[in-house]
Design brief:
Blueprint (H helix, E strand, L loop, with lengths): L8 E9 L2 E8 L10 E7 L1 E6 L6 E6 L2 H17 L5 H29 L1
Antiparallel strand pairs: 1-2, 2-3, 4-5
């Protein structure tokens, strides 16, 4: 996935949208860093045919991609090694702070672009 500094990983979240698993990794970057504060990865679900022995019919099941499960396992290992046990409220406040920071940076960039035209 291209994670160069796993010690900078702050937390991650997992969502499912349709037949896609979405993994968002949030980093704790030093002030003034030009690297992104978060990265999002999308993993399509794998279609698997499961045969029912009792009915004799085949059913389709959508399972998570093995690479997705491996990535989650690695993230749990990295965060477990750091020993971070964050309160849910604190995690939400941190996500909100990162969002506000990102919006401020983007609006500043748009203002600069408007000033140049």
């Amino acid at each position: 996935m291209g994670v160069v500094n796993p010690q900078q990983i702050d937390n991650y979240s997992v969502n499912s949208i349709g037949y896609t698993d979405v993994l968002r990794i949030v980093y704790k970057r030093p002030k003034g860093s030009l690297l992104p504060l978060s990265k999002t990865y999308k993993f399509p679900r794998v279609q698997q045919t499961v045969k029912d022995d009792v009915k004799g019919a085949a059913e389709v099941a959508m399972n998570s991609d093995p690479a997705f499960r491996a990535a989650i396992g690695e993230l749990q290992d990295v965060l477990g090694a750091k020993g971070t046990d964050q309160d849910i409220g604190a995690a939400i406040v941190e996500e909100l702070r990162l969002l506000e920071e990102d919006i401020a940076l983007r609006s500043e960039c748009i203002k600069m672009l408007l000033g140049k035209t």
